[in-house]
Amino acid sequence: MTEVIIAVDELDDCLGDFFSECLQELEIIEKDANCGAKYIKSNQLNEAAISFTVPADKAFIFLAYSHGSETELLKKGTIPYISEKLNIEKFKKTFFYTCSCKTGKSLGQTLVDNECYCYIGYNEEFTVWDFNRKPFVECANFGFKLFLEGNEGGEVINMMKEKYDEAIDNYENDFFGAAHLLSNKNALTLKGDSTHSIAKMT
Which of left, alpha, beta for 36 (phi over 0: left; psi -120 to 50: alpha)? Predict the structure, then answer.
């Protein structure tokens, strides 16, 4: 089975509750798939832990749930643990997914330029409506589930958008919540090989 590494900033002051709920669902998804995922949580989330945990010589799946910017992933919104200048070379041969804000503007392409197979993320702000977080959690995690099931990257992002449409249609009497979901859907982007799948993780 392809190695899975999940970085989660569940103690973040702003979005920690959302990241924690994503983590709870991710644990169910990866256990059902018998992945044996490795988790890097808030107390260990830093550049050194990333370097120590990611494999140097084989393909792996990497997920990140934290704040981000155009060029980096950030613990507590301020401390880089992955960035274009810091450790981008660590992510060769990866399927890389993150719900961090704006990483699709630059970081995603830089990962691909450094031999990451496929990046899926967001090129604008990823927003959460706290009055009903469940559909945001489900949409954020859906791509990982689809990839584990054998879908190619292009299929994954298309089905993620369909999942967002379903969530928007089912969002009960809440224009603002639906607007946040639509914004996230429109910000989804893929860089790299759209035909990449877990079967090609070598």
Answer: left
